[in-house]
Amino acid sequence: MSGFSTNEGYSVYSKFNFSFTRVYLFWGLSNVRDKSLDDLLAEIYLKYPNASIGDLKIVEEYEFSDGMVDLVTGGIVRPYTLHIKGNVYALNQRTLTK
Q1: What is the three-class DSSP state of 83?
Q2: What is the arrangement of strands in the sheet containing 77-90, beginning at the earlier edge strand?
Q3: CB of 48 within 8 A of CB of 17?
Q4: What is the pLDDT of residues 71-97, one digit of tens each?
Q5: Beta strand pairing call for 52-61 and 77-90
Q6: How many helices (H) and strands (E) does the chain have?
Q7: pTM value > 0.70
Q8: Residue 1 pLDDT
Q9: What is the enclosing helix (H) or strand (E) of 70?
Q10: What pLDDT does residue 17 have?
Q11: Per-residue pLDDT at 19
């Protein structure tokens, strides 16, 4: 998406990067801990209410620690780790408060 360009008056105000672990039970048949994208980004929306989020990158990985939990529980508990990063864009930096 190229909607947040400097020609339109947008600039990168802040960057964010966080991880969230989704947890499933019984070989992935039932989710125990899962959130929607809106729930995951709610803290950023609340912290910067007049800003826009762009350059969003979401990667789901099955990390080594996830595999160890899966192995020890025999697949009954199956975690997956989400890594989410992006930029917070603002039209006018004076309108945002940290």
Answers
A1: strand
A2: 30-33, 11-25, 77-90, 52-61
A3: no
A4: 998 889 888 899 999 988 887 655 555
A5: antiparallel
A6: 2, 4
A7: yes
A8: 46
A9: helix 64-72
A10: 93
A11: 92
